[in-house]
């Protein structure tokens, strides 16, 4: 097997609740290979978003190791960290709150190109148009304000922004959960196409096992910050071993109906 | 358009807007209607108002035209009020944004400094500053701003504290944006509405402070100010009270107008909503 894009080991983060420290993430280890989709599943509050924020260095872990593209990601800081972020992107759940409310589509896509020096000022409008077309949007959308376009279009813009810097890994934190079912299918298809063509790995966070079975290669099921079980996605969903895995499968009616 | 409509729905806002419009008209028209030096002698001393229609508000102790002084005083009041408020809002927004966004030691230090400035009464601060540096328009503006930026700083900081937890700030970090750019380009503009809602109170207070400084003889000596006119009139308060009353009324109306119009703007805009 290829060297993993992301290797996380013994990650832990404690918060305080009512004066008592409690583990939001507790001794979590996993790895993601190139062009692989690893799903993080689990009920609300099980620590999925905290893991996303930890591996992306939006918050710092208490203990643990995060290796990205073979290098210690936790050892980076300042300009070196900012430069490395080009390869490690994220798409958020709510495509409206994920953007500056004053931004236009063009500005949202211009930022990564400018910050990482990927295109000159005169070249960037063309690159922005290409990015929009890449995610199935019209180039003319660039002039619109973020709040003027639909939720599905916004999530496509978010994906365009994430792929602008040619990352090897994108964290998708409930990236399709807020979308209508029909739009959700289109976005999932776009993600799969991008993965195939650009060999991007996904850390795909969702509480919906139906969606996970459709897109993920492997799944990690979390319960109260700890890994309850993990394995090949279809196998785990077809025959969960842990109590939380069984409960999640039972709570997803679409799975029960389609199961033989 | 609908916002303008909403603004003019309350009678207070209309009154405020009318007073402000009159004030601005006076300030703009002053050099056109009264092109000469307003501090030059224009007629006999202590002419009462409404006697001579070329000098409608009469003359002061030295025979200077009170009407011309009033118009030129509006210019000073407005200029100082707006400039001082703009400076205070700018300093406050920058300090508050840095403190709220950086957190930790930077926040601690900046907020201690803010506390210190807030503890000293702003008028004493302005008085001390002008006494030390010397009276000129720029110094007066700076002195007033020095005592007025702490309110905007606190409001900006509180707003930034809530904004910095939003996803789009995390998103800006993920694409590798430089922290200062995140603070001033992503966060600050979105923290501004509640800060700007303070501007009417700050402009009104700045105009009053300028008048008080001038009253104490610490205004720019080369400019006519309403505070200076009131102080001038004090010497002949018994025989010619209008010399103090006329600029006094102008001052009260102006402060009232600024305040009412400001409230109207806040009321009619989304600012009120984002404040609650
Ligand atoms: N900044 C924080 N301070 C305190 N507790 C937090 C914080 N962030 C998350 N938590 C807690 O950590 C746990 C995991 O949260 P989260 O990772 O958001 O879960 P999920 O994304 O799986 O729903 C929850 O109990 C949540 O309340
Ligand atoms: Mg979450």
Automatic annotation (TrEMBL), chain A:
Stretches assigned to the ABC transporter domain: 6-249
Molecular functions per Gene Ontology: ATP binding; ATP hydrolysis activity
InterPro entries referenced in this protein's UniProt entry, alphabetically: AAA+_ATPase, ABC_transp_ATP-bind, ABC_transporter-like_ATP-bd, ABC_transporter-like_CS, P-loop_NTPase
The keyword ATP-binding belongs to this UniProt entry's keyword annotation: yes
GO BP terms in the entry: transmembrane transport
Domain of life: Bacteria
Keywords: ATP-binding, Nucleotide-binding, Transport
Family annotation (Pfam families): ABC_tran
Signal sequence, renumbered to the chain: none
Keyword hit for Transport: yes
Entry similarity comment: Belongs to the ABC transporter superfamily.
Protein name as catalogued: ABC transporter ATP-binding protein
Automatic annotation (TrEMBL), chain B:
Organism for this UniProt entry: Mesorhizobium tamadayense
Domain ABC transmembrane type-1, residue spans: 74-262
Localization per record: Cell membrane
Any Pfam family: OppC_N
Name of the molecule in the record: ABC transporter permease
InterPro entries given in the database record: BP-dependent_transpt_permease (IPR050366), MetI-like (IPR000515), MetI-like_sf (IPR035906), OppC_N (IPR025966)
CC terms in the record's Gene Ontology section: plasma membrane
Record keywords, A-Z: Cell membrane, Membrane, Peptide transport, Protein transport, Transmembrane, Transmembrane helix, Transport
GO biological process, one term: protein transport
């Amino acid at each position: 097997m290829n060297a993993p894009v992301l290797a996380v080991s013994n990650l832990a983060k404690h918060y305080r609740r009512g004066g008592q420290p409690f583990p939001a993430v507790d001794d979590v280890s996993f790895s993601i290979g190139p062009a692989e989709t690893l799903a993080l599943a689990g009920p609300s509050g099980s620590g999925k978003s905290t893991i996303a924020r930890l591996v992306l260095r939006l918050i710092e872990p208490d203990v643990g190791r995060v290796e990205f593209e073979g290098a210690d990601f936790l050892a980076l800081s300042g300009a070196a960290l900012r430069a490395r972020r080009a390869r490690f992107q994220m798409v958020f759940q709510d495509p409206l709150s994920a953007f500056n409310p004053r931004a236009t589509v063009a500005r949202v896509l211009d930022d990564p190109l400018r910050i990482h020096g990927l295109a000159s000022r005169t070249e960037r409008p063309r690159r922005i148009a290409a990015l929009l077309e890449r995610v199935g949007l019209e180039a003319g959308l660039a002039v619109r304000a973020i709040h003027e376009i639909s939720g599905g279009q916004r999530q496509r813009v978010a994906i365009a922004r994430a792929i602008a810097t040619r990352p090897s890994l994108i964290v998708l934190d409930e990236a399709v959960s807020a979308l209508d079912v029909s739009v959700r299918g289109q976005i999932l298809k776009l993600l799969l196409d991008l993965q195939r063509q650009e060999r991007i790995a996904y850390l795909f966070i969702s509480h919906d096992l139906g969606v996970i079975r459709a897109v993920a290669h492997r799944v990690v099921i979390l319960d109260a910050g700890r890994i309850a079980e993990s394995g090949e996605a279809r196998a785990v969903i077809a025959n969960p071993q842990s109590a939380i895995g069984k409960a999640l499968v039972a709570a997803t009616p679409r799975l029960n109906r389609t199961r033989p | 358009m609908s916002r303008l409509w909403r603004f003019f729905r309350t009678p207070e806002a209309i009154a405020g807007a009318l007073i402000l419009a009159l004030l601005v008209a006076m300030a703009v028209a002053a050099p056109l209607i009264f092109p000469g030096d307003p501090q030059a002698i224009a007629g006999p001393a202590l002419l009462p108002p409404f006697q001579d229609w070329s000098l409608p508000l009469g003359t002061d102790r030295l025979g200077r035209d009170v009407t011309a002084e009033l118009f030129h005083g509006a210019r000073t009041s407005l200029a100082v009020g707006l400039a001082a408020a703009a400076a205070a809002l700018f300093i406050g927004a920058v300090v508050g944004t840095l403190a709220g966004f950086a957190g930790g030691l930077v926040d601690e230090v900046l907020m201690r400094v803010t506390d210190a400035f807030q503890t000293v009464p702003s008028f004493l601060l302005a008085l001390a500053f002008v006494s030390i540096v010397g009276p000129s328009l720029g110094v007066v503006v700076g002195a007033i701003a020095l005592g007025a930026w702490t309110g905007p700083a606190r409001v900006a900081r509180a707003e930034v504290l809530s904004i910095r937890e939003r996803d789009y700030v995390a998103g800006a970090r993920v694409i590798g944006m430089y922290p200062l750019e995140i603070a001033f380009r992503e966060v600050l503009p979105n923290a501004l509405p509640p800060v700007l809602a303070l501007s009417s109170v700050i402009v009104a207070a700045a105009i009053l402070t300028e008048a008080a400084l001038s009253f104490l003889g610490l205004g720019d000596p080369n400019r006519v100010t309403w505070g200076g006119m009131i102080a001038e009139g004090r010497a002949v308060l018994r025989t010619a009270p209008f010399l103090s009353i006329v600029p006094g009324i102008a001052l009260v109306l102006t402060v009232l107008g600024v305040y009412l119009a400001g409230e109207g703007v806040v009321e009619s805009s989304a600012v009120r909503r984002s404040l609650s």
